[in-house]
């Protein structure tokens, strides 16, 4: 699979590379261009002719598309570029980290700080351990260094307490409803009948008084 990089070199080296590409090199030695990296894959050496320059492989803050054209009109995409080889003069300080601080164009100056959110502060050891556990689980094993906490008994006690509170609330609601119904209950038929008989008795007493009979009070008083 083809993989593309951006090559950033000092101006003096860029002129020599342009001469090599245009086949107008000053000496046959300039036709030799080589890039090699150490075991870490980040630091290496850029060789042109008999001169050697330190080089670093840096990640770009964004993805850059590369295109080619045969007629200077139609563009054909050839790949996505996410890394850059930076060649520096001997004695020049290398970049602080694996990522280049700026992009390729002026609007992408200090892009990581101005245009992107901060990376989360996560311990790399934790990430590595989680990755190993996932690989082990997918292979049919179990995760290591796992702490198990039994919470079933506590959950059951909380559930019983909630049910008891619900039952008590339901019983209180039933008592309130019965008391309300008792206050609004119509009078008993016996009470209504007794009240009617007393009224009739009073009328009889009054009629007896009007007839000239012996008067008396129906009440015991």
Automatic annotation (TrEMBL):
One of its GO terms (molecular function) is RNA polymerase II general transcription initiation factor activity. It comes from the Eukaryota. Residues 1-145 form the TAFII55 protein conserved region domain. Its main location: nucleus. It is found in: Nucleus. It holds the Pfam family TAFII55_N. GO terms for biological process: RNA polymerase II preinitiation complex assembly. Residues 93-119, 161-221 are annotated as: Disordered. Belongs to the TAF7 family. This is TAFII55 protein conserved region domain-containing protein. The lineage of its organism: Eukaryota, Viridiplantae, Streptophyta, Embryophyta, Tracheophyta.
